[in-house]
Amino acid sequence: MHCDEYVRTGKCFDGECEYLHKPRGDEASSNGTKNALLVISCGPERTASTWLFNSIRLLFEYSKQPVDSYWIHNISQEKLESRGFKQKDSHHLLIKTHDYPNEWNVNQADLIFTTHRNIVEVAESYVRLGWLPLHLPLLISHFRRYEADHLKWRDKATLNFSFEEISSDKKTCLKKIAQKLAEKGIDCQDVVNKVYEAVEELEAPKGRSSPDPVSKLWPNHISKSNVPQKLSREDRQTLMKTFAQYQQFYGYPTEEL
Ligand SMILES: [Zn+2]
After folding, report:
1. 3-class SS of residue 77
2. For residue 219, how far is its CA from the centre of ligand 1 (angstroms)?
3. 5 CA to middle of ligand 1, Å?
4. CATH number, domain containing residue 88
5. For the whole model, what pTM was predicted?
6. pLDDT tens digits for range 44-101
Protein backbone atom coordinates (compact mmCIF):
# COMPACT_ATOMS: atom_id res chain seq x y z
CA MET A 1 0.00 0.00 0.00
CA HIS A 2 2.70 2.47 -1.04
CA CYS A 3 1.87 6.11 -1.54
CA ASP A 4 2.53 6.57 -5.26
CA GLU A 5 3.33 10.22 -4.90
CA TYR A 6 5.98 9.41 -2.29
CA VAL A 7 7.52 6.63 -4.35
CA ARG A 8 7.63 8.90 -7.41
CA THR A 9 8.79 12.16 -5.86
CA GLY A 10 9.90 11.39 -2.31
CA LYS A 11 7.20 13.76 -1.07
CA CYS A 12 3.60 13.66 0.03
CA PHE A 13 1.76 16.77 1.14
CA ASP A 14 -1.51 15.08 2.07
CA GLY A 15 -1.68 15.16 5.87
CA GLU A 16 -4.43 12.54 5.88
CA CYS A 17 -2.70 10.15 3.45
CA GLU A 18 -3.14 6.61 4.78
CA TYR A 19 -0.62 4.94 2.48
CA LEU A 20 2.92 3.77 3.13
CA HIS A 21 5.71 6.32 2.98
CA LYS A 22 8.80 4.26 2.43
CA PRO A 23 11.03 4.10 -0.64
CA ARG A 24 10.15 1.08 -2.75
CA GLY A 25 12.76 -1.66 -2.74
CA ASP A 26 14.01 -0.71 0.71
CA GLU A 27 15.98 -3.80 1.80
CA ALA A 28 14.60 -4.05 5.32
CA SER A 29 11.08 -3.83 3.97
CA SER A 30 11.38 -6.56 1.38
CA ASN A 31 11.48 -9.49 3.80
CA GLY A 32 8.59 -10.31 6.04
CA THR A 33 8.48 -12.04 9.38
CA LYS A 34 6.64 -15.09 10.66
CA ASN A 35 5.34 -13.35 13.73
CA ALA A 36 4.22 -9.99 12.50
CA LEU A 37 2.81 -7.79 15.24
CA LEU A 38 0.06 -5.24 15.06
CA VAL A 39 0.94 -2.28 17.26
CA ILE A 40 -1.32 0.71 17.75
CA SER A 41 -0.15 4.12 18.83
CA CYS A 42 -3.33 5.95 19.75
CA GLY A 43 -2.41 8.90 21.93
CA PRO A 44 -4.85 11.77 21.40
CA GLU A 45 -3.73 15.11 19.99
CA ARG A 46 -1.44 17.41 22.00
CA THR A 47 -0.25 14.68 24.40
CA ALA A 48 3.16 13.79 22.86
CA SER A 49 1.40 11.17 20.72
CA THR A 50 3.74 11.74 17.76
CA TRP A 51 6.76 11.25 20.00
CA LEU A 52 5.20 7.93 21.04
CA PHE A 53 4.60 6.89 17.43
CA ASN A 54 8.14 7.72 16.31
CA SER A 55 9.67 5.98 19.30
CA ILE A 56 7.88 2.72 18.49
CA ARG A 57 8.61 3.10 14.78
CA LEU A 58 12.33 3.59 15.36
CA LEU A 59 12.55 0.81 17.96
CA PHE A 60 11.39 -1.53 15.20
CA GLU A 61 13.60 0.02 12.54
CA TYR A 62 16.78 0.23 14.62
CA SER A 63 16.43 -3.40 15.63
CA LYS A 64 16.19 -4.29 11.91
CA GLN A 65 12.62 -5.46 12.08
CA PRO A 66 10.50 -5.11 8.96
CA VAL A 67 7.84 -2.60 9.89
CA ASP A 68 5.29 -0.65 7.90
CA SER A 69 3.97 2.43 9.65
CA TYR A 70 0.73 4.08 8.70
CA TRP A 71 -1.58 6.86 9.76
CA ILE A 72 -5.16 5.53 9.68
CA HIS A 73 -8.02 7.78 10.66
CA ASN A 74 -10.60 5.04 11.21
CA ILE A 75 -9.14 1.55 11.56
CA SER A 76 -11.04 -1.25 9.81
CA GLN A 77 -10.34 -4.91 9.14
CA GLU A 78 -10.27 -4.21 5.42
CA LYS A 79 -7.71 -1.42 5.74
CA LEU A 80 -5.47 -3.57 7.91
CA GLU A 81 -5.71 -6.62 5.69
CA SER A 82 -4.88 -4.63 2.60
CA ARG A 83 -1.76 -3.52 4.49
CA GLY A 84 -0.68 -7.09 5.22
CA PHE A 85 -2.43 -7.83 8.51
CA LYS A 86 -2.76 -11.57 9.20
CA GLN A 87 -0.98 -12.48 5.97
CA LYS A 88 1.86 -14.95 5.82
CA ASP A 89 5.32 -13.47 6.16
CA SER A 90 4.05 -9.91 6.34
CA HIS A 91 5.65 -6.93 8.03
CA HIS A 92 4.94 -5.66 11.49
CA LEU A 93 2.24 -3.02 11.32
CA LEU A 94 2.43 0.13 13.35
CA ILE A 95 -0.69 2.24 13.14
CA LYS A 96 -0.96 5.82 14.32
CA THR A 97 -4.50 6.89 15.01
CA HIS A 98 -6.63 9.00 17.36
CA ASP A 99 -10.24 7.91 16.99
CA TYR A 100 -11.52 4.68 18.48
CA PRO A 101 -12.63 2.46 15.58
CA ASN A 102 -16.35 2.24 14.93
CA GLU A 103 -16.47 -1.41 14.06
CA TRP A 104 -13.05 -2.99 14.27
CA ASN A 105 -12.34 -5.13 17.33
CA VAL A 106 -9.23 -3.65 18.94
CA ASN A 107 -8.52 -6.87 20.86
CA GLN A 108 -6.83 -8.07 17.68
CA ALA A 109 -3.93 -5.70 18.31
CA ASP A 110 -0.83 -7.16 19.98
CA LEU A 111 0.12 -3.96 21.72
CA ILE A 112 -1.68 -0.67 22.26
CA PHE A 113 0.14 2.41 23.48
CA THR A 114 -1.53 5.66 24.42
CA THR A 115 -0.88 8.98 26.12
CA HIS A 116 -2.86 11.51 28.13
CA ARG A 117 -2.59 15.05 29.49
CA ASN A 118 -4.42 17.52 31.69
CA ILE A 119 -7.44 18.39 29.52
CA VAL A 120 -7.13 22.10 30.32
CA GLU A 121 -3.59 22.17 28.95
CA VAL A 122 -4.77 20.29 25.87
CA ALA A 123 -7.47 22.94 25.40
CA GLU A 124 -4.92 25.74 25.85
CA SER A 125 -2.78 24.10 23.22
CA TYR A 126 -5.66 23.77 20.75
CA VAL A 127 -6.55 27.44 21.15
CA ARG A 128 -2.93 28.55 20.92
CA LEU A 129 -2.52 26.67 17.64
CA GLY A 130 -5.80 28.04 16.31
CA TRP A 131 -7.36 24.59 15.98
CA LEU A 132 -10.42 25.71 17.88
CA PRO A 133 -11.68 29.21 18.70
CA LEU A 134 -11.77 30.42 22.27
CA HIS A 135 -15.41 29.50 22.69
CA LEU A 136 -16.17 27.32 25.67
CA PRO A 137 -19.26 25.40 24.43
CA LEU A 138 -17.31 24.42 21.33
CA LEU A 139 -14.30 23.34 23.35
CA ILE A 140 -16.48 21.28 25.68
CA SER A 141 -18.29 19.50 22.88
CA HIS A 142 -14.99 18.74 21.12
CA PHE A 143 -13.33 17.43 24.25
CA ARG A 144 -16.30 15.24 25.12
CA ARG A 145 -15.63 13.29 21.93
CA TYR A 146 -11.89 13.43 22.54
CA GLU A 147 -12.37 12.05 26.03
CA ALA A 148 -14.81 9.33 24.92
CA ASP A 149 -12.32 7.98 22.36
CA HIS A 150 -9.45 8.15 24.81
CA LEU A 151 -11.33 6.32 27.57
CA LYS A 152 -12.10 3.43 25.26
CA TRP A 153 -8.46 3.18 24.20
CA ARG A 154 -7.34 3.57 27.79
CA ASP A 155 -9.23 0.44 28.80
CA LYS A 156 -7.33 -1.56 26.19
CA ALA A 157 -3.92 0.07 26.49
CA THR A 158 -0.77 -1.92 27.22
CA LEU A 159 0.91 1.28 28.39
CA ASN A 160 -0.53 4.72 28.95
CA PHE A 161 1.98 7.55 29.38
CA SER A 162 1.28 11.01 30.67
CA PHE A 163 2.47 13.99 28.66
CA GLU A 164 4.29 15.11 31.78
CA GLU A 165 6.30 11.92 32.23
CA ILE A 166 7.28 11.94 28.56
CA SER A 167 8.34 15.57 28.87
CA SER A 168 10.43 14.93 31.94
CA ASP A 169 11.97 11.52 31.23
CA LYS A 170 11.72 10.24 27.67
CA LYS A 171 14.35 7.59 28.15
CA THR A 172 12.47 5.80 30.91
CA CYS A 173 9.33 5.84 28.79
CA LEU A 174 11.28 4.39 25.87
CA LYS A 175 12.64 1.61 28.06
CA LYS A 176 9.11 0.70 29.09
CA ILE A 177 7.99 0.55 25.45
CA ALA A 178 11.05 -1.53 24.53
CA GLN A 179 10.27 -3.93 27.37
CA LYS A 180 6.75 -4.51 26.05
CA LEU A 181 8.05 -5.04 22.51
CA ALA A 182 10.68 -7.44 23.86
CA GLU A 183 7.96 -9.47 25.58
CA LYS A 184 6.47 -9.93 22.10
CA GLY A 185 9.77 -11.11 20.64
CA ILE A 186 11.22 -7.82 19.36
CA ASP A 187 14.73 -7.63 20.70
CA CYS A 188 15.10 -3.86 20.85
CA GLN A 189 16.40 -3.04 24.29
CA ASP A 190 19.95 -2.46 23.05
CA VAL A 191 18.86 0.27 20.68
CA VAL A 192 16.97 2.39 23.21
CA ASN A 193 19.73 5.01 23.48
CA LYS A 194 20.10 5.32 19.73
CA VAL A 195 16.35 5.61 19.27
CA TYR A 196 16.18 8.24 21.99
CA GLU A 197 18.74 10.37 20.10
CA ALA A 198 17.10 9.74 16.75
CA VAL A 199 13.66 10.82 17.95
CA GLU A 200 15.18 13.92 19.55
CA GLU A 201 16.74 14.82 16.23
CA LEU A 202 13.56 14.54 14.20
CA GLU A 203 12.49 17.90 12.88
CA ALA A 204 9.10 19.10 11.80
CA PRO A 205 8.96 20.38 8.23
CA LYS A 206 8.98 24.13 7.77
CA GLY A 207 7.09 26.44 5.49
CA ARG A 208 4.19 24.18 4.56
CA SER A 209 0.88 23.09 5.96
CA SER A 210 1.23 19.31 5.90
CA PRO A 211 3.18 16.92 8.10
CA ASP A 212 6.31 14.98 7.28
CA PRO A 213 4.88 11.80 5.72
CA VAL A 214 7.24 9.49 7.61
CA SER A 215 7.52 11.01 11.09
CA LYS A 216 4.01 12.54 10.96
CA LEU A 217 5.44 15.64 12.61
CA TRP A 218 3.36 18.67 11.68
CA PRO A 219 4.95 22.05 11.10
CA ASN A 220 4.31 24.67 13.76
CA HIS A 221 2.85 22.16 16.15
CA ILE A 222 5.47 22.58 18.77
CA SER A 223 4.16 25.02 21.33
CA LYS A 224 6.69 27.32 22.88
CA SER A 225 6.92 27.10 26.61
CA ASN A 226 6.18 30.14 28.73
CA VAL A 227 3.43 31.42 26.43
CA PRO A 228 0.62 33.20 28.25
CA GLN A 229 -2.58 31.28 28.89
CA LYS A 230 -5.41 31.94 26.47
CA LEU A 231 -8.27 30.58 28.55
CA SER A 232 -9.65 32.67 31.37
CA ARG A 233 -9.55 31.38 34.91
CA GLU A 234 -13.30 30.83 34.67
CA ASP A 235 -12.97 28.83 31.44
CA ARG A 236 -10.26 26.67 32.94
CA GLN A 237 -12.37 26.10 36.01
CA THR A 238 -15.38 25.08 33.92
CA LEU A 239 -13.30 22.64 31.87
CA MET A 240 -11.85 21.06 35.01
CA LYS A 241 -15.31 20.62 36.47
CA THR A 242 -16.78 19.29 33.22
CA PHE A 243 -14.01 16.73 32.91
CA ALA A 244 -13.62 16.13 36.63
CA GLN A 245 -13.71 12.36 36.32
CA TYR A 246 -10.96 12.30 33.71
CA GLN A 247 -8.91 14.81 35.70
CA GLN A 248 -9.37 12.88 38.91
CA PHE A 249 -8.51 9.53 37.37
CA TYR A 250 -5.13 10.85 36.29
CA GLY A 251 -4.51 13.03 39.34
CA TYR A 252 -4.89 16.30 37.43
CA PRO A 253 -6.45 19.27 39.21
CA THR A 254 -10.24 19.50 39.32
CA GLU A 255 -10.25 23.14 40.30
CA GLU A 256 -8.10 26.15 39.64
CA LEU A 257 -5.98 26.99 42.64
ZN1 LIG B 1 1.09 9.87 0.84
Report:
1. helix
2. 16
3. 6
4. 3.40.50.300
5. 0.94
6. 999 999 999 999 999 999 999 999 999 999 999 999 999 999 898 899 999 999 999 9
